[in-house]
Amino acid sequence: MCGIVGYIGDKPSLPILINGLKKLEYRGYDSAGCAIVSGNERMEVYKAKGKVSNLEEKTQNDDACGTLGIAHTRWATHGIPSEINAHPHVSQSGNIAIVHNGIIENYAVLKEQLEKKGYTFKSETDTEVLAQLIEYAATEGNGDLVSGVRRALKLCIGAYAIAVVDRRNPDLLIAARKASPLAIGIGENNEEFFLASDASPIAEYTRKIVYLNDEELALIERGKELRIENLHTGSVDYEIKEVDLDLSMLDKGGFPHFMLKEIFDQPTVLKDCMRGRILEKDGKYRVVLSAVEQHKDILVNAKRFTIVSCGTSWHAGLIGKQLIEHFCKIHTEVAYASEYRYNDTVIEPGDVVMAISQSGETADTLAAIEMAKEKGATIFGIVNSVGSSIARQTDTGTYIHIGPEIGVASTKAFTGQVTVLTMLALALGKARGTVDEQEYNEVLRELTLIPEKIQTILQQNDKIKDIARIFTYAHNCLYLGRGWNYPVALEGALKMKEISYIHAEGYPAAEMKHGPIALIDDEMPVVFIATHHQLYQKIISNMQEVLSRRGRIFAIVTEGDEQVRKMCAEVMEVPATLACLAPLLSVIPLQLLSYHVAVAKQLNVDQPRNLAKSVTVE
Ligand code: F6R
Asked: Is 617 inside a domain boundary?
């Protein structure tokens, strides 16, 4: 939520900031702004409601040439999206400007105290309070900005990633973080530094990145070596990492939207995800995951797995539970991270808590694993963003390696997560001796064929586009699946509601008759996931129940299935596969369906209203 960019160096900062904000727009897009500091105590502040392109337009004819600047793209938490609430926020004297990602939970108390000291506020934001607080603390400390930031942050409760500049000092950029991510890019010979919420806006300028840790403050001075200090203990050493980011993944590659590109990326990125992990010799397959090799004892002897995650990652977790219980015979629970973190969870020896997260920055998931770690659980991460906060909090884990996911609606991350969960369950099942040899080989072989099978589903894109037109008239729809495909029903419904704004419910198909069946009429599309696996006959009975109430059925079926076709308004075919791998195929037509419905409704597919890609607030 919210993206931050900063630059100090020898080039005009404005184009670098705008370019960086565009890469971070997935984190929020209800307003954007920047502050450019040039010599002679000049600071230009620009703000625009809506997209970064509006800010770009607004700044186009200005001659702000300062080589120090900070910028922000906002996802509103305190105060409506408006220019006044947009960042940067400037202190009362006009000297200090700040951009912020996170929430200052005690901002109301701090605001009241500052008001008593004569400070007035223009916006409804917690960030303006922080700007004034920094100014107040700096003034109290003889005007020293660094000690002002340090003292102000010690008074704040909550989460922050901030960048601060002072109109009177064009040579200093200050950054700090607690529970919200921040990366610093180091240019050649310390001639320039880049700051951003993640590495994507930095990677085209430098691969040398330092990730700030919680309660660290960075002093970035022109031409000097980067200094980092802990808010409480002073100067700390830091590690410079080399990031390996495929920059071609950061553009649409000829597709009209990131979401469509990422759906079509799946065959390639799933191969990347399996590369070097699934090995074959003479028709014999084996899976090698370094996390399982290195932590075999703990994982093999695990008494219970608890998967914590949110949204789409939670749906992948539901499949993970089935995989781990099936192949490893280990009791597995799946919890919403936002609930789990506040539960009186009992952690016992042998408990492994598994965080699944695409961004690696989801605040609830991060807090859930911190809580579990404190209570003694081993933490396993299934994360996409390398070096992210969640990845760094885990004891071990497996990256999904599917490249950056930019479209707000998660697609390739889901199939990447399920692929990793499958490999993990098989590797662990093998190590525990709980998986049948023949099944182990068969599932791994079939898993390597999944990318080609997804490719054949993608060829139905035009057909699914036609089917999508029917859905544009719907106000509600129901997604029903059973067994391995039940989480796919949930995921299909989530995709539909988040980008098409059509109310969609995912349900276990047999549960329908305990309530949702009352909704069925000839106006509500009912999507069945009816691939040819266990419970197939039972799904057909559930379909009969819908037909008897004049429901219109759209189904995901296994290629060549005539029985279900006869019962449906339309079918979307997927190639045959093993039951445990069915979700990897049956989710694809549902991703395409939601995409085309949103496009047909002329909605903003990549940036749906009210959402942000990375939910770094509670
Ligand atoms: C849905 C979606 C969200 C995320 C959720 C968790 O399309 O993208 O539901 O899955 O916010 O995010 P991560 O996986 O980054 O922790």
From this structure: no
CATH number of the CATH domain containing 160: 3.60.20.10
Domain's final residue, options 456, 490, 515? 456
How do beta strands 158-166 and 278-281 pair?
A: unpaired
- 602-615 pLDDT tens trace: 998 988 887 777 77
- Determine the 3-state secondary structure of 120 from DSSP: coil
Q: How many CA atoms lie within 13 A of 344 on its CB side?
A: 0
Report the separation in Å between the CA atom of 407 and the middle of ligand 1, taken as the mean of its atom positions: 11
The two tokens of residue 280 are 């074959």
- Cα gap 377→374, rounded to integer Å: 7
Q: What is the pTM of this model?
A: 0.79
Give the catalytic positions in this structure: 2, 613
Q: What are phi and psi of 378, to 5 degrees?
A: -80, 135
173-182 pLDDT per residue, tens: 999 999 888 9
Give the residue from 215, 245, 275 where a domain finishes: 245
Closest CA to 352 of 367, 330, 385, 326: 330
Share of the chain above pLDDT 90, in %: 80
Percent of the chain with pLDDT over 70: 99
Question: The domain containing residue 47 runs over which residues?
Answer: 3-245
Give the CA-trace dihedral at 289, 410, 372, 176, to 10 degrees.
100
Report the alpha-carbon distance of residue 179 to residue 363 in Å, rounded. Answer: 7
Nearest CA to ligand 1 atom 4: 311
Rounded distance from Cα 135 to ligand 1 centre (Å): 37
